[in-house]
């Protein structure tokens, strides 16, 4: 080429997917991989019920499922969603306040790229990679974050949040992920109300990623943003990828609150919509399925059974890992992830796990030079056991640890995996080259 055509790299890596490349290489050496890196219930053995498949079969028989949808989404589905919000009686929206996207990742990318480059979102730390990368790439500067405190069961540090939004005038919005990914923290109503108060007092808007809003257990409760937002401008982001679960549908949406109360926020939403128009519309079939799936008489029972299973695995994992020396393990109460933290200064560049195959050992040693200490542990764990987890630093946090899923349908197998991780942590910490 006559000159460099690619945009400069950000240096950011989506480790949830990147580690798959390493695992695939290990598979070539004969290592059996246990996938704990990505939140795909179907990949982990979730059986889609026959009644849900029948719903989709019926829709496929309709010619409309093969057509373009309106740019904002199918009218009937947007009406269904708006009616659900309005039925809660806390804030009122119209179908025009609902916008569909090709998955929540698309919604996130559109939202952050519509913000002026000198305006910033403040987000939790650690945070889900898609939000972080989209926000940093739009601004080309390091992020603004507020801490999720592992020493307080991952509760957000709201004092730090308030101080930062007051002192950093470029911050225009606050991100919440509720329940949180990667920590599994479920926001109490009071915490949400305080975040909305901070937004109101500092003239900010709120984005709430509610992908897992109906996957809450262990006696915890929360509410969707629409219940407590009042008159503050906000966006709730939702999806069917985890709840149905149908991640391959790539179907997510925004619920826009109070755009009529702030002309600046209204123009921001309009910018997002104009971006959306450039791709015409989002996939039609899954949009048509949403009202029929969510009103099906079997749906609530199906979701309840899945949630009870995640609760069981959460308690198994916590029971095993909470007493492992040099670890901080908080119980997961929502979504289906568990994030485990290593005590400060316990990891170093000399630690290792035994790897029988010389080729595998050589490959891993080539990857573990001058990398984050938790990533080093994760790579050694992967090579020695086949268990594929994600290092916590990949969620853009200085904390060292890892995230695993609570998705295995075989309880005994899951318990074996967690016990293996616990044993390998002990071996790793006490090793030294």
């Amino acid at each position: 080429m006559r000159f460099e055509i690619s945009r400069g790299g950000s240096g950011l890596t989506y480790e949830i997917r990147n580690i798959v490349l390493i695992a695939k290489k290990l598979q070539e050496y004969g290592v059996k991989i246990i996938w704990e890196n990505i939140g795909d219930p179907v990949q982990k053995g979730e059986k889609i019920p026959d009644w849900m498949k029948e719903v989709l079969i019926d829709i496929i028989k309709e010619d409309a499922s093969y057509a373009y949808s309106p740019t904002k989404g199918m009218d009937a589905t947007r009406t269904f969603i708006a009616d659900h919000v309005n039925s809660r009686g806390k804030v009122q929206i119209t179908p025009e306040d609902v916008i569909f996207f090709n998955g929540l990742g698309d919604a996130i990318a559109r939202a952050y790229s519509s913000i002026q480059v000198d305006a910033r979102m403040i987000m939790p730390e650690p945070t889900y990679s898609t939000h972080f990368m989209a926000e940093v790439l739009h601004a080309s500067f390091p992020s603004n974050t507020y801490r999720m405190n592992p020493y307080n069961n991952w509760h957000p540090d709201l004092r730090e949040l308030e101080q930062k939004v007051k002192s950093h005038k470029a911050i225009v919005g606050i991100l919440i992920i509720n329940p949180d990914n990667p920590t599994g923290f479920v926001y109490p109503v009071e915490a949400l109300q305080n975040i909305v108060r901070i937004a109101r007092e500092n003239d900010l808007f709120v984005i709430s990623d509610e992908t897992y809003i109906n996957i809450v257990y262990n006696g915890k409760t929360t509410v969707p943003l629409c219940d407590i937002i009042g008159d503050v401008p906000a966006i709730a982001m939702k999806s069917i990828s985890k709840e149905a679960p149908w991640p391959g549908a790539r179907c997510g949406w925004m619920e826009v609150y109070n755009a009529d109360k702030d002309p600046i926020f209204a123009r921001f939403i309009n910018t997002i919509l104009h971006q959306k128009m450039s791709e015409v519309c989002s996939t039609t079939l899954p949009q048509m399925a949403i009202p029929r799936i969510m009103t099906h008489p079997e749906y609530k029972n199906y979701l309840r059974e899945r949630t009870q299973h995640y609760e069981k695995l959460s308690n198994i994992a916590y029971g095993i890992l909470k007493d492992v020396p040099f670890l901080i393990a908080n119980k997961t109460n929502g979504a289906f992830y568990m994030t485990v933290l290593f005590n400060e200064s316990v990891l170093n560049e000399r630690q290792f796990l035994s790897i029988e195959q010389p080729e595998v050992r050589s490959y891993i040693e080539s990857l573990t030079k001058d990398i984050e200490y938790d990533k080093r542990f994760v790579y050694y764990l992967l090579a020695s056991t086949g268990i594929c987890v994600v290092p916590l630093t990949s969620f853009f946090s200085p904390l060292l640890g890892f995230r695993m899923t609570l998705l295995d349908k075989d309880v005994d197998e899951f318990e074996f995996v967690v016990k293996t991780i616990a044993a390998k942590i002990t071996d790793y910490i006490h090793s030294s080259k």
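The first strand starts at residue 34 and ends at 35. The chain has a mean pLDDT of 94.
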